[in-house]
């Protein structure tokens, strides 16, 4: 059985919960160091990366941990 891909890549279609609603969009980049992104300081590292995502509906960017993002079916690996 193939091993499930755990990381995300630029362009992957994902969904996340925002203010109690499902939001969909795409990954714009992987953040693996402490930096400013999406209007806030992101405390990411190589061991605990975060992902900048862009909402398909509003075009706004946000940064989330991997466990908060769910790959949409039909994109990338399962």
TrEMBL record:
Residue span(s) of domain Hypervirulence associated protein TUDOR: 11-69
Basic and acidic residues bias spans: 27-55, 65-78
Top-rank lineage group of the source organism: Bacteria
Name the record gives this protein: DUF2945 domain-containing protein
Species in which this protein is naturally found: Streptomyces halstedii
Disordered, as annotated region: 1-78
One Pfam family linked to the record: Hva1_TUDOR
